[in-house]
Design a protein that fits this description.
The protein has a single domain (7-397), classed as Proton glutamate symport protein. The radius of gyration is 21 Å and the shape is globular. It is built from 18 helices and no strands. The protein is mainly alpha-helical. Helix content is 75%, strand content 0%. It has helices at 7-24, 34-63, 70-97, 121-127, 133-138, 142-156, 161-186, 189-204, 207-239, 245-251, 253-262, 265-278, 284-297, 300-316, 323-340, 346-358, 365-369, 372-397.
Length: 404
């Protein structure tokens, strides 16, 4: 009988092994730290084509959807507002708890490419528009790449059917290939984590501080997810949607538990649609548009998590982000969420996008990857909860009689 350990267990074992190696063999870390370097380089390699293809594919699928008029505007308004509220909630808790501030982790990295360091917010918005898109690709200017991808995807839906079909199929094929490649690279995550953690531990030597910071970091994420899921979304559902949030929660318990256990909103989608229609009374017209779209572009929990993770990594490396710079992190998380939900291990890919956008060290991924699986379960449940709330709110606004 062949035993196969899930990837998150492999990563956890690699984390423990890296800590022990860094403590007991600090002078030999040089022989294994290359694994972390190779893993980070591989992640950097796939960021641009993965983000480009995922966002273009997501935007073209949205543009081709039926009834994109009034229903589409309501759906996008809901997704944008709730995602922004989620990110701002995460921003609040990470600044209040400051999990990475004052921790003696020994993480020192020369950061010369903090692109937004000397720019005003207005200058940053102007620079989002690339003068040369290929230069933006080469320089990893993620905000420019995301901006271009959204525009390109939108205008694919406005060309002749023949061109639209060719381009849509091309980027869908490219996205499929990039997903396969991403799965392949993610498979080496345990080796990458082993190399990264061993080097960080050997340089800092302060395991207690590391454990303390990670505990506060997890607390910040859980508190922010709790506030968004238990307070923000129910209040919107009750006072804007005129729907009883407690009754609605009971009607979607099964998909929420499934999302929590599988950490996959896409895999949960059939159960989500069934629960919203049969238990909530939402019509198939509404659910078949809002829920698949939500599984693609609406990820409240993940966007919140990425905002906290990026600022935590900045704090851990001693990089002080001003309010304006943190706004750029928020803006990037919001833009990156357009296509990230369809990406395998969306959390890892999104955080590399955000770190690249603001010039923060990608090595910080090693800090958060060790606890990613636990947090992934909760943020996925919040993602699905946000989708279901959107479905009933929009159905109510369309005059449908619901069971909740």
């Amino acid at each position: 009988m062949k035993l196969k350990f899930p990837l998150h267990f492999q990563i956890l074992l690699a984390l423990v092994a890296g800590i022990l190696f860094g403590i007991f063999f600090p002078h030999h870390v040089i022989y294994i730290s290359w694994m972390g370097d190779v893993f980070i380089r591989a992640l950097k390699m796939i960021i641009i084509p993965l983000v480009l293809s995922s966002i273009i594919t997501g935007v073209t699928s949205i543009g081709n959807a039926e009834n994109l008029g009034r229903l589409g505007l309501k759906t996008f308004a809901y997704y944008t507002v709730t995602s922004l509220l989620a990110i701002l909630t995460g921003l609040f808790f990470v600044n209040v708890l400051k999990p990475g501030v004052g921790a003696d982790l020994g993480l020192v990295k020369e950061v010369n490419n903090l692109q937004m360091l000397n720019d005003s917010f207005g200058q940053i918005l102007i620079k989002i528009i690339p003068t040369n898109i290929f230069q933006a690709f080469a320089e990893n200017s993620m905000l420019s790449v995301i901006f271009f991808a959204i525009l390109f995807g939108f205008f694919i839906t406005r060309v002749k059917d023949k061109s639209k079909k060719i381009l849509t199929e091309f980027f869908e094929g490219l996205f499929d290939v990039m997903m396969k490649l991403t799965f392949f690279i993610i498979g080496f995550a345990p080796f990458g984590v082993f190399g990264i953690v061993a080097r960080q531990v050997s340089e800092s030597g302060n395991i207690i501080e590391l454990a303390k910071s990670m505990s506060i970091y997890m607390l910040a994420v859980m508190l922010a997810l709790g506030v968004h899921g238990i307070i923000t979304l129910p209040l919107i559902t009750r006072y804007i949607g005129k729907v009883n949030p407690l009754k609605h929660f009971k009607s979607v318990t099964t998909p929420l538990l499934t999302a929590w256990s599988t950490s996959s909103s896409s895999a949960t989608l059939p159960l989500t649609m069934q629960a919203v229609e049969e238990n909530g009374g939402v019509s198939n017209k509404i659910s078949s548009f809002t829920l698949p779209l939500g599984a693609t572009v609406n990820m409240n929990g993940t966007a919140l998590y990425e905002c906290i993770a990026a600022i935590f990594i900045a704090q851990a490396y001693g990089i002080d982000l001003s309010f304006g710079q943190q706004v750029i992190v928020v803006f990037t998380a919001l833009l990156a969420s357009v296509g990230a939900a369809g990406i395998p291990m969306a959390g890892l890919v999104m955080i590399t996008v955000i770190l690249s956008a603001v010039g923060l060290p990608l090595e910080g991924v090693g800090l958060i990857l060790s606890v990613d699986r636990i947090l992934d379960m909760f943020r996925t449940a919040i993602n699905v909860w946000g989708d279901t709330c959107g479905a009933v709110i929009i159905a109510k606004s369309e005059g449908e009689k619901l069971k909740v």
